Amino acid sequence: xxxxxxxxxxxxxxxxxxxxQETCAVIDPQRDVEIYIEEARRLGVKITHILETHLHADFIxxxxxxxxxxxxxxxxxxxxxxxxxxxxxSEGDTVELETMRLDVLETPGHTPEHxxxxxxxxxxxxEPIGAFVGDTLFVGDVxxxxxxxxxxxELAEKLYHSLHEKLLKLPxxxxxxxxxxxxxxxGRSMGAKYLTTIGYERAFNPVLQIDNLKDFTKxxxxxxPPAPDHFSRCTEINREGPALVADLPPLKMLTVAxxxxxxxxxxxxxxxxxxxxxxxxxxxxxxxxxxxNGNFPTFAGWVLPPxxxxxxxxxxxxxxxxxxxxxxxxxxxxxxGYLDGGMLSWVVEGLSTRSTKQxxxxxxxxxxxxxxxxxxxxxxxxxxxxxxxxxxxxxIPVADLRTRYAxxxxxxxxxxxxGSGKRSSLATSILEQNGFEKVYNLAGGMQxxxxxxxxxxxxxxxxxxxxxxxxxxxxxxx
Length: 478
Hints:
Layout: E1 2-8, E2 13-19, E3 23-27, H1 34-43, E4 46-51, H2 63-70, E5 73-77, E6 87-89, E7 94-97, E8 100-106, E9 115-121, E10 130-134, E11 137-138, E12 141-142, H3 152-165, E13 175-178, E14 196-197, H4 198-204, H5 213-221, H6 230-240, E15 252-254, H7 256-263, E16 268-272, H8 276-281, E17 288-289, H9 296-303, E18 309-313, H10 317-329, E19 335-339, H11 342-347, E20 357-359, H12 361-370, E21 374-378, H13 382-387, E22 394-395, H14 401-404, E23 413-417, H15 422-433, E24 439-442, H16 445-451
Parallel strand pairs: 3-4, 4-5, 5-6, 10-13, 15-19, 16-17, 16-18, 18-19, 20-24, 21-22, 21-23, 23-24
Antiparallel strand pairs: 1-2, 2-3, 7-8, 8-9, 9-10, 11-12, 13-14
């Protein structure tokens, strides 16, 4: 038995190859599947099984692409009612892979159809060695049960039973292979390690210390981070079967003239994925700005209207390709081209642009003490804002700004901040789309402002490998 782990950053997704001597299974594959095909070729094994633990909410799965390229069989929970060829699995079913046996447990809670694969290497013994738990159990956390409107309490109770009556019945030494790590919004406070054990989580996972069903349910149905827009879309796409990547339109390199002609169509919008400092200098009117160096896929899936087509402004060809790949991971499939030569090719043609002033921590501090007629807008999450903020700031999380911009005065100077300057730059692009003319971005965000000594340090902002969200229950034993 050989286990290989693959981590997709930004969406913080873990997938796995479980290999024998001649065949292997891929568990919860990402959409760009060549990594598994190349690894199987390197190992000299054939991909015969594609195992899905659940209908993933935060990304488009690669199960159909992988099946089409390899002929492997897809396995998923029977109650998912998937609309493509697959083998549906229920409690007590078994999947055989050479000397390995994968016993199926139904573990609903994060999603209604969730299953877990408990792996036994029969060549070594008859006790389980590990479990592919999907989003039921994480390192230091459990899956969130609030992704289905009106069902949060019901699913939280099911999650409690899945954990305490099934997974925690496994031996302490049994390894746990989750589908996500720190940074994912499928939980609230998961750790950065990609694997753990049942025994370690039993002893130190703060959520598992809540043995009262009522308290457990309450802890997972209150103070949860917001769920991005694409979560509900991805779940249904993965059930129906996503389009094959090979069938998606190729990314075209467009001259300035071609780009300009296409951008004038009603169904087309512009996404600028350059750094926020480059975007601030010169950008196209009404462009979305999502910094490729930030969490591009999450915010692309969260704010971009999926019914539109998109043109890219990127630093270079490779960045345009990467932006397209990451957009497709969250179901934004209609990126149709990018501007050849980037903004330089645009400005040398004498065409119109906009700019967004980037101000330093020192400049903001001086403005706060020099003038009173401006709005300081903090677009971090409510939890981050509560952790520490600048006195007088207004908190509207960046994705909410698409509608809540109406709460602000368009004629007032608006200075926007976040943790580092990336989300706030997205916010400035949303404000500009909606008629705000006087918008500044705080370069360096709250990290820079606290480093300058003007506010206390934000423990969330400075913890890149930890959760973006904190609550009292999740601070136990930390």
